[in-house]
Amino acid sequence: MATQLPPGIQLEKVDDRIMTLNVGPQHPGSGHMRLIIKVDGDYIVSCDPDPGYVHRGEEKMAEYRNYIQNIPHLERPVIHDSCNILYPYCLAVEELLGIEVPERAKYIRVIASELNRCIYTLYWLAIYGIFLGHSTMFMWPAGDRELFIDLLEAMSGARVTHAYLVPGGVRNDLPANFEERCLRQVDYLEKRLKEYQSIFYKNPILISRTEGTGILSRTDAIRLGTTGSVLRASGVDYDIRKKEPYDVYENLDFETVVRKEGDSYARSYIPYLEMFESCRIIRDAIRKMPKSGSVRTKLKPNPKGGNDEVYKRVESGRGSLGYYIVSNNRPEPYRVKISVGSFRNLICMPYLLKGELLGNMPSVYWGLNYWPVEADR
Amino acid sequence: MSTAGGIIRALNSGIKHLAIRRFTLRYPEQKLKFVGDGFQFNPETGVGIAGLRGRHILYHEHCTGCQLCSVACEGIAEAIGMVKIDETWKQNKKAIMPQIDYGKCVFCGLCVDACPFYALYMTNDYELSSFTKSALIYTPAQLAVKPKISQDVEIKIDDRGATHG
Fold first, then answer.
1. How far is CA A216 from CA A35, A329, B96, in A?
2. Residue A263: which of A356, A371, A138 has the closest Cα?
3. Does the N-terminal or the C-terminal CB of chain A have fewer CB atoms within 10 Å?
4. Can you list the alpha helix ranges (DSSP code H) found in chain A?
């Protein structure tokens, strides 16, 4: 993982030359977390991530609320990806309570979660751009994101925290003429995404800063337990939508994006390419969706789960996102454990940053697709 | 050479945007149009009707004071409290109706899902800011007022880009 160092630079044993830097928790480049970085000149000797500044006790809070009341607070860890973070919860609760989901609701859920994945990725791309000093890449995705936010607002009634998915389906049916409007805006976004190529991804300045930095080999990616775009950037073809299809993903036409380089450039390129796949999924889902029918199974008030435990996971914008729910014949879950992709990807950061230039820290850090609030839960 | 070419191509694609129409909603002058009259819920089918989840509207002639909205809000935001009202309605023996604190409300709309009497819906009104915290607490009388809506701008997409207008 260590890159070729100029002569005279040693990574170990030069104690008196090493300086400790605290990046964060208030530094805008770190998000809500602290990175304790030891530097020798411009080179990073060691990095010790210190997360936990935005821990909210979501898992404990979930034990005091019933299965419906849990919805609004469980989407708070990633408000930009709120459909995807609720998705495994709904799947798990449906299995616990034995609820059948109508066919149309399954397609609507897929559309909502793919729209939300695009919203998340565009937001992430905006931050990635501004931390590499590319302010145009901050403006463009932040503006284009509005199109999909408006679509989800029309669907769910809220701009960011949708609370749209519920155990048993979705809260409400699609509004009139939604399909037509959705297809128009998806087409437009695809056109816009192609313009990002020349200004950002094919930009020699970005390539020089990201290509070859923070290389994570295929074996290391598997050994460290990374998920999502980080895993796929290292050449592992693993997408939960393909490998363990949930709802209607097995009927839909899309491909997993894999790159072999394992460097920061590949990690930043994969979410971008996946947005095209998301657009494809949305188009396919709109075509295959039943045109009418129920969208929500009626639940009993205060439904009780049996003596059971369920683990369900989905592919979120940041990798595998799973819920492990234990119930004991009460309206509230006994235990809710949220397993998030962000936290799992954080573990490879000390390995990636060792031997890198300090200036490359933001590109490696944000390339991990890490969301501090989700990791702390 | 390829580096210079790449930079020129990047600059060029930025310059092209000078000719593209601006995609900015000029908010106080323009207001985005929403679908429908706000989020509503049909207790018979158990399915909601799509719409913006803004400020609530309370139909006094339907509200029975059953407190289900308040119970639904208990674990979420605790924004809804039941208060005594002066009016007399024959379906509302206890003469209590919900009062909503918008300083706490998260606009999840689960209170609307909980109401079985077609009494509590949400509207397209989202401009709720005030100078004092106490002004954010809406009494049943304030909640009964229909909001004045003047939202008319839609997103238009053509060859020259997307605009609001």
1. 19, 45, 63
2. A356
3. N
4. 58-61, 70-74, 82-97, 103-131, 135-156, 178-196, 204-210, 218-223, 228-233, 240-243, 264-288, 341-346, 349-353, 361-367, 372-376
Contact indicator for A243, A258 with CB cutoff of 8 Å: no
Counted domains in chain B: 1
Asked if the structure places residue B161 within a domain, the reply is: no
Tokens found for residue A177: 């003429």
Within a domain: B22: no
Residues of B in contact with A161 (CB under 8 A): 106-108
Distance from the Cα of A89 to chain B's closest Cα (Å) equals: 17
CATH of residue B47: 3.30.70.3270
CB A256, CB A110: distance < 8 Å:
no
The string of DSSP letters for A60-93 reads: HHGGGS-TTTHHHHHTSTTGGGHHHHHHHHHHHH
Cα–Cα nearest to B59, from B81, B92, B105, B35? B92
Asked if A172's CB is within 8 angstroms of B50's CB, the reply is: yes
CA distances from B70 to A369, B56, B66, B79, B126 (A): 39, 13, 9, 8, 21
Q: Say if residue A372 is preceded by a cis peptide, omega within 30 of 0.
A: no
Q: A252 and chain B: CB distance < 8 Å anywhere?
A: no
Q: Which residues pair with A209 in a beta bridge?
A: none
Name all domains of chain A by residue range, CATH numbers in brackets. Answer: 58-376 (1.10.645.10)
Q: Is residue B86 part of a domain?
A: yes
Quote the domain boundaries for residue B124: 32-149
Q: How many CA atoms lie within 13 A of A252 on its CB side?
A: 29
CA atoms of B160 and B20, how far apart (whole Å): 6
Hey, is the C-beta of B1 within 8 angstroms of any chain A C-beta? no
Residue partners of A287: CB distance under 8 A and separation at least 6: none
Nearest-angstrom CA–CA distance, A133 and A137? 9
CB atoms B36 and A175 under 8 Å: yes
Q: Which residues of A touch B13 (CB under 8 A)?
A: 195, 198-199
CB proximity B50 to A under 8 Å: yes
Whole-angstrom distance, CA of residue A238 vs CA of residue B9: 34
pLDDT digits (tens, 9 = 90+) for A187-229: 888 888 888 888 888 888 888 888 888 888 888 888 888 888 8
Per-residue pLDDT reduced to its tens digit, A80-138: 888 888 899 999 988 888 888 888 888 999 999 999 999 999 998 888 888 888 888 88
Q: What is the average pLDDT value for chain A, to the nearest integer?
A: 85
